[in-house]
Design brief:
With about 170 residues, the chain is mainly α. It contains 5 helices and 2 strands, in the order H-H-H-H-E-E-H. About 35% of the residues are buried.
C-alpha cells in the first residue's frame, strides 16, 4: 500500500466533513489494496478485448480525476493533464507503457494535493466554478463525486484483480 493509504473504516458517528474525508480515503486505499502485490505486467493486464482497462489504467485515471477536481476546479490552478497533451481524460486509461512507480507516484502526489486543498477549505460550503457544468459546485459535492468515482472504479478493480490471480474481497 502506498503512503497515507491505510484502509480505515469510516466513523459511525463522525461529523459530515470527517465522514466524507474518511470515506474518500477508504476508497483511495481500496484501489491501492486491489493493486497490492502485483508486478507492472500484471497491473497493465487488460480486462478483455476490446477494452484496454487495467488496474494501472485505473490508478492513472484516478490521479487525473484528483488533479482535475481538487487542483483545477477547487484550487483554481492551471495545470496540464498528467497523461495527455490534448486534455483527453480517457488517455489515462492506456497504461500500456506505464509502470507502477510512475502511476502510483503521480496518483499519490495528486492525493496529497487534494488533501491539502480540502483541509484548507473553510467549510464544505466553499464553492468553485465547474466549466463543464457551467455552474458552481461545493466542496461537499466534489468530495461526494470523488467517492462515487472511486466506488465505481473499485468495482472494476475487483473484477480486474480476480481475473489476474483469483484474489477477491471487499
Amino acid at each position: 500500500m502506498i503512503t497515507g493509504m491505510e484502509r480505515i473504516s469510516p466513523p459511525l458517528t463522525g461529523n459530515e466533513r470527517e465522514t466524507l474525508r474518511t470515506y474518500l480515503d477508504y476508497h483511495r486505499a481500496t484501489l491501492a489494496w486491489k493493486c497490492e502485490g502485483l508486478d507492472d505486467e500484471q497491473l497493465r493486464s487488460a480486462s478483455m478485448p476490446p477494452s484496454t482497462l487495467s488496474l494501472l489504467g485505473l490508478v492513472r485515471h484516478m490521479g487525473e480525476v484528483e488533479r482535475h477536481w481538487f487542483r483545477r476546479v477547487l484550487g483554481g490552478e492551471e495545470v496540464a493533464h498528467l497523461w495527455s497533451d490534448t486534455h483527453d481524460f480517457q488517455a489515462a486509461y492506456d497504461a500500456s507503457g506505464s509502470t507502477r512507480a510512475e502511476a502510483f507516484t503521480a496518483w499519490q502526489e495528486e492525493v496529497e494535493h487534494a488533501r491539502r486543498i480540502e483541509a484548507a477549505a473553510e467549510s464544505l460550503e466553499v464553492t468553485a466554478y465547474v466549466p463543464s457544468w457551467k455552474e458552481e459546485a461545493s466542496l461537499r459535492l466534489v468530495m461526494l463525486h470523488l467517492i462515487h468515482e472511486y466506488a465505481r472504479h473499485n468495482g472494476h478493480a475487483d473484477f480486474l484483480r480476480e481475473a489476474i490471480d483469483g484474489t477477491t474481497g471487499a
